[in-house]
Structures are given as structure tokens and as C-alpha cells.
């Protein structure tokens, strides 16, 4: 994906590997990501996805 890309995930299941997406966001390989669903619902404590 391009560095100015935005990923929007509304798919249930493992369509997106969250750990890899977190690394991708932290290295600024893409601009942003928005999620409607997560691998684990409800998110525990301070989720990395909320701070990547």
C-alpha cells in the first residue's frame, strides 16, 4: 500500500492481521486505519490498536 493509504476494515474474522497492521502504522508505511471489528471483542485495557 502507498504511504498515504487509509485502510478501512469492516470484515469479521481474520481478514487483517492486527499485529502486522500495528507495525505498519508505527513505521508510517500507511497513513491510517479504521476498524469496525477487532480480533478480540471487547478490547482489553489499553489496546495497541488505539495508539498505533
Q: What can you see in these coordinates?
A:
The chain is an alpha+beta fold and 52 residues long. The protein has one domain. The chain is 17% helix and 15% strand. The chain contains one helix and two strands, in the order βαβ. A two-stranded parallel ribbon has the order 1-2. Strand 1, helix 1 and strand 2 form a beta-alpha-beta unit. 0% of the residues are buried. The model has no long low-confidence stretch (mean pLDDT 83).
Q: What general outline do the C-alpha atoms trace?
A: globular
Give the domain tally: 1
**Helix proportion range:** 10-25%
Instruction: Classify the secondary structure makeup into a structural class.
Output: alpha+beta
Overall residue-averaged pLDDT value: 83
Cα radius of gyration in angstroms: 11 Å
- Biggest sheet strand order reads 1-2
Percent of residues in beta strands?
A: 15-25%
In whole angstroms, how far apart are the ends? 17 Å
Q: Which spans have pLDDT < 50 for at least 5 consecutive residues? A: none
What's the total number of strands?
2
Oligomer: single chain
What secondary-structure arrangement, pairings included, does this model have?
Elements (H helix, E strand, L loop, with lengths): L5 E4 L8 H9 L5 E4 L17
Parallel strand pairs: 1-2
Short descriptors:
single chain, 52 residues, alpha+beta, two-stranded parallel sheet, 1 helix
Condensed summary:
The protein has 52 residues and is an alpha+beta fold. It has 1 helix and 2 strands.
Amino acid at each position: 500500500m502507498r504511504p498515504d493509504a487509509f485502510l478501512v476494515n469492516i470484515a469479521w474474522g481474520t481478514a487483517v492481521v492486527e499485529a502486522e497492521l500495528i507495525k505498519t502504522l508505527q513505521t508510517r508505511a500507511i497513513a491510517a486505519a479504521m476498524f469496525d471489528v477487532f480480533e478480540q471483542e471487547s478490547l482489553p485495557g489499553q489496546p495497541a490498536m488505539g495508539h498505533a
